[in-house]
Amino acid sequence: MFAVEVRDHIMIAHSLPRPVFGPAQGMHGATFVVDAAFFTKDLDEDGLAVDIGLATQTLSEVLKPLNYQNLDELEIFKGRVTTTEVLSKHIFDRLAEAVSEKKLGPGSDRICRLRVLLHESHAARGWYEADL
Known about the structure:
Layout: E1 2-14, E2 28-40, H1 52-63, E3 69-70, H2 84-100, E4 111-119, E5 125-131
Parallel strand pairs: 1-3
Antiparallel strand pairs: 1-2, 2-4, 4-5
Helix pairs in contact: 1-2
């Protein structure tokens, strides 16, 4: 299996209003480093799994509506607790849509798996990964 992984980041505000989250129940900011991996079983005639430029651009476009936002105020997260895992799945779903819309160019058809990994800090991260 081949993969191309690209990285970006988002700066958000949110609260996690459940007792299990302790002090994070209150409003706080977070900067997530976001890694997106695009997996293929083969390479194209140019030796590429995925166009890294289009992968970078697509990740940036997917993250843009979240960056510098209070996630508690966004309709897409209404009634949801925006944990790292929930955010990973949301970003995964948007990237999967981009793949199906062929936004990663001719190589879109070869992408068979995605992984979206969010680094909460230098010591903790979470992700969502699945076949397409």
